[in-house]
Amino acid sequence: MLVYQLFTPLLYFAIAAAVAGVVHRWVLPLRRSMLLALLVLPLVFTGKALLTGQVYGPYDRAYDALPFSSVKEELGVDGPSRGELHDLYTQIAPWHRAVRHAWSEGDWPLLNPFTLAGDVLLGSAQPAPFYPPNLISLLLPLPLALTFLATLQLYLAALAAFVLCREVGCGRRAALLGAAGWMAMSGTLFWVGWPIGAALALLPATLAAVHQVVRDAGRRSALFLAVALALALLAGHPETAAHHVLVGSFFGLWWMATQPAKGWLRMVAFAFAGGALALAFSAIAVLPLWDTVTQTFEWTRRQALPAAAAESFGELVSRALPNFIPFAHGVPGLRLADLPNFFQPLSGAYVGSLLFAPALLGVLAKPPGDRSASRWLWLVAGLVGLAAGSHLPGIDRLLGLVPPFDTVIHERLIAVTGLALCVLAAFGCDAWLAGRVSGRRLAVLTAAVFLGLVVSLAFLWSSLVERGAGEHLPLHGALLLAPLLLWLPFSLSHRRRTLAFIALLALLLVQRAGEMGNLYPVSRLDTFYPPLAALELPEDLEAPSRFVGFGFTLFPNQAAHYRLEDPRGYQALRHAAFRQTFPLWVAKDGPWWYTSVSDFTRPFLGFLNVRYALTPADRSVGGWQRLRAGEGWAIWRNPWVLERAFLPRRVRCGVQPGSRLEEMSRARSFSEVAWIDDACGELPGDGVREIANGRGELTVRSDGTGYALDARLEEPTWMVVSNVAWRGWRARLANGEEIPVVRANHAFLGLRLPAGEHQVRLFFRPRSFELGLGITALAIAAWLAIGGWRAISRLNASRS
Q1: pLDDT per residue as tens digits for the range 757-772
Q2: Amino acid 333: pLDDT
Q3: pTM (2 d.p.)
Q4: Residue 245 and residue 250: Cα distance in Å, rounded?
Q5: Which residues contact 757 (CB under 8 A, 6 or more apart)?
Q6: Coil, helix or strand for 575?
Q7: Nearby residues of 463 by Cβ (< 8 Å), 6 or more positions away
């Protein structure tokens, strides 16, 4: 492991330098000093974990519940980190593990067998298995890969913002300030490691590409736009990718309006070409996502949700305040005030009070060239983002007039406000460094900063003192005063302005590290899901089996780290029919956001192939066999478990969904009867019928992320497989013939085999993935072929 700990920072610097080389060659020339600064910026937050070979993230939260709490003291794990970060250890890290499992089995990363009775992986978007940084991270063990990805994400955010600031005309030093502000924005730092953060970090790159298409429409600018949008689509958060398109369209139309009308058609043509190429590059992920979304409960729920709107002016102000006063609703580490969205105070557009003065100067100071219109563009964009993030009544309805924006959560557009502040601060810094600041504007700036200081301190007094955190008041007051003290000496010489700029950049990083640096803990490698006796199952177990915990025990989806299959799960997209079965086995009093189990006598758990259960030591499980116990925990075995694939004695066909669920709720044993959605094969007749099933022998074993079935049947027979029937499951006989897969028991898989001996491979391979794979492969091959042909042509031309 020591070798990997040393290799991780080397890999980061190598990949970051390679990306910078591509940018330098194809997008924007980069000086070595700027590259070095961009490489170092992320280390302000992740440097300790990256350089010492530790884990950056809240993975110590796992030790708040069994079975990890039983070894908490033994491993020396401190108290819990912030609860708002629970998705990282309950979703993101387990998804990474499931992707690695699929690759290790020689399968495409399409199915996650470890959660929700067989969940989609690529199709749910957020695992993002084809996002290039995630592919590179496979070179590292998972805990170190998470640190590498967090650092690279911050670097890409800084680099993208630097390119954008340079593209709209800022000098190098001013662009570096804007890049540092965007990288250290609350939203960027909060979403480190999340798919939304990976997509959000690239927003400046998309806008830079749009600006380049408007400025110089051609193949290179279209390719730049295609790569930026494709990376956003592959990053795993389709809503943020949709916002790339929305915001990019807004900026593109504004910039086009400043250009001669005779060039509009060319700009639009190359913009659409870039968008089409982006869809082709990312089709391997986009098509399976669309195929999956239309099967989910959330698809219909999102379409029925009313447009978000603040209920009062007070709520509007409450949502807007954290974007300008970081402690308006509490401080990191302390209880936050009750808000409709408890993420909002930490994931907003606050970029540090040190940037407020240069941002205001960017509005007041007239920039050279065509940037005189740009400052108003950024001001308008920032206000629109603030309105969306604060739920201004009517803004969601307006933004949702065009599909698919009617199903998108627009409050995350608050990030545009943070980006606008960073770009305006770069404008202001550029004007200051160039000496383009008049005395009148300086007076207005000074008055505005003083007014903001008074208002900010007033809010801080009411929020911090009431929460017993008054010690933060002098610190924040001094930091608010710092920009004023720094920006007063505008008559300094050029050299002293350079030193003042370096001081401003350093103070900004110190401020943001002080405000957000304790958000993510740094953990030792040996505490990242270590081997546990409570999760060791019998070694002679060959048949597929599922494992469930009581309540919050073995919180989903952590079982993936131990290759245990858990029918519970925590997922943003849930199969609509599978969710309808939750009343048959999920606790009614459990949390709404994941499937909790408390009653182990439910027959449906046996159907789900739940063979083992983990409970607190003092809890008994009626009828189950107690295998062993440890410090605060016990393992139980289910005597009524059914195999993953089995032959029911009878089948019922033609039952309507509502009646089917009611009948299933009364079933005492699912081995007696199964419900088949179609007309029971080739048998004539319509309506509800019940027939005897065929007899025979059936064995099942795991085969990658699918199954190998060996059947010896006396007559045509139905078999049921307790995996959720996502579209894309296929069954193939040994001779290569595919047989139909239907839905059984409302949300699961059913097969009908003829009499005789059969070897069946059951695997998950959606047609949408195969089509997307073909389109992406063809697009990349065509791109490489054209690029190679052009390179050869240039080489021949240079020789001649």
Answers
A1: 999 999 999 999 999 9
A2: 42
A3: 0.93
A4: 9
A5: 710, 711, 712, 713
A6: strand
A7: 325, 327, 328, 329, 330, 337
With tokens 């998804």, the residue in question is 95
Query: Is 50 exceeded by the pLDDT of residue 698?
Result: yes
Mean pLDDT over 491-507 rounds to 76
When pLDDT is averaged across residues 336-353 and rounded to a whole number, the result is: 64
Largest CA distance in the chain: 96
Q: How far apart are CA 457 and CA 450, in angstroms?
A: 11
| Residue 542 burial by Cβ neighbours in a 10 Å radius (0-12, 13-18, 19+) | exposed
> Which among 52, 38, 10 has a CA at the least distance from the CA of 180?
38
Query: Tokens 């097969």 identify what position?
Result: 751
**Average pLDDT for 702-723:** 94
Distance CA 266, CA 262 (A): 8
The span from the CA of 186 to the CA of 230, in Å, is: 25
CA atoms of 331 and 315, how far apart (whole Å) = 19
| Cβ atoms of 389 and 382 closer than 8 Å | no
More confident residue, 466 or 230: 230
Q: CA angle at residue 722 from 721 to 723, to 5 degrees?
A: 95
Which residues does 559 contact at the CB level (< 8 Å), separation at least 6? 94, 114, 115, 535, 547, 565, 566
Q: How far is CA 422 from CA 16, 211, 349, in A?
A: 22, 17, 10
Which strands sit side by side in the sheet containing 633-637, from one edge to the other?
Answer: 546-549, 610-616, 633-637, 625-629
Tell me the average pLDDT across 299-326.
75
